[in-house]
């Protein structure tokens, strides 16, 4: 089992303006959503995990290895970050070259890197796009390219930054399936999100950040049951949860599928 351990993490760009204060978390194999309003410290947190920023104090360890002792390049071999905007990540002239770049940097041979890239492409529905310039694709497909580029590296931790941006229902389902597969492979899957419906339908655990601290941490159902606390972080419950409460149901439903199962169980009684 892979495990990230964060102990007493603090970070500030300026001494008198703390961004994160006293973060203590253990994030294990499975799926974890990090949610909160803009400015809550979510992006700063994942940049610290990735080694793109250095903590003011505190430690971050992966499988008991202190990441402060590793370079950004070394961390990249174990922690992959998929940017919110794929245009900040993509720089090669063909889809295949873009997705092969990471595996090649990790020391795979060209044939091994190509096999890893094509496997990742198949997962994201990019078959047949090998020679296409990524910038000839729409934003949704460029996002898929950026995801495939990290998936191909086979890192122990995969971090998604707003994965559902520009995705229709089919795209979201594809990304959800990839996340579930990564979980089965024993990876730590972390995502920053504003899409509460996707969080409710996809993740096991949710961590709410507010003003640089952890406000809530628990199963998705536990977190979304705390309506008043969520409102303190300027967050809403999932759409299904809100609708069912408005209709007078006391039980907490996270998704349409969950509600349908409940209704069918009543019909069979």
UniProtKB/TrEMBL annotation:
Similarity section: Belongs to the ABC transporter superfamily.
GO terms assigned for molecular function: ATP binding; ATP hydrolysis activity; ATPase-coupled transmembrane transporter activity; riboflavin transmembrane transporter activity
Lineage: Bacteria, Bacillati, Bacillota, Bacilli, Lactobacillales
Topology term for the membrane: Peripheral membrane protein
Entry superkingdom: Bacteria
One GO cellular component term: ATP-binding cassette (ABC) transporter complex
Coiled-coil annotated residue ranges, if any: none
Residue ranges of every copy of the ABC transporter domain listed in the record: 4-236
Natural source organism: Streptococcus zhangguiae
Protein keywords: ATP-binding, Cell membrane, Membrane, Nucleotide-binding, Translocase, Transport
PROSITE patterns found in the cross-reference section: ABC_TRANSPORTER_2
Name of this protein: ATP-binding cassette domain-containing protein
Compartments (UniProt record): Cell membrane
């Amino acid at each position: 089992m892979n495990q990230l351990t964060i102990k007493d993490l603090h970070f500030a760009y300026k001494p008198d303006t703390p961004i994160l204060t006293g973060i203590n978390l253990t994030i294990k194999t499975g799926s974890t959503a990090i949610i909160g309003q803009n400015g809550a410290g979510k992006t700063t947190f994942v940049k610290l995990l990735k080694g793109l920023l250095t903590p003011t104090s505190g430690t971050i360890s992966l499988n008991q290895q202190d990441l402060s002792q590793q370079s950004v390049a070394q961390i990249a071999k174990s922690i992959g970050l998929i940017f919110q905007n794929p245009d900040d990540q993509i720089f090669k002239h063909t889809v295949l070259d873009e997705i092969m770049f990471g595996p090649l940097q990790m020391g795979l041979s060209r044939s091994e890197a190509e096999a890893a890239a094509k496997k990742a492409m198949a997962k994201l529905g990019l078959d047949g796009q090998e020679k296409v310039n990524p910038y000839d694709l729409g934003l949704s497909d460029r996002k898929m390219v950026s995801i495939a580029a990290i998936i191909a590296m086979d890192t122990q931790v995969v971090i998604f930054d707003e994965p559902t941006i520009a995705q229709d229902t089919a795209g979201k389902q594809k990304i959800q399936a990839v996340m579930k597969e990564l979980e089965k492979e024993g990876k730590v899957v972390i995502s920053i999100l504003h899409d509460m419906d996707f969080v409710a339908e996809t993740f096991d655990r949710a961590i709410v950040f507010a003003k640089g601290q952890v406000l809530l941490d628990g199963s998705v159902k536990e977190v979304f049951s705390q309506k008043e606390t969520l409102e303190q972080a300027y967050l809403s419950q999932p759409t299904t949860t809100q609708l069912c409460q408005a209709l007078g149901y006391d039980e907490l439903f996270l998704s349409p599928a969950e509600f349908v199962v409940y209704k069918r169980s009543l019909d069979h009684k």
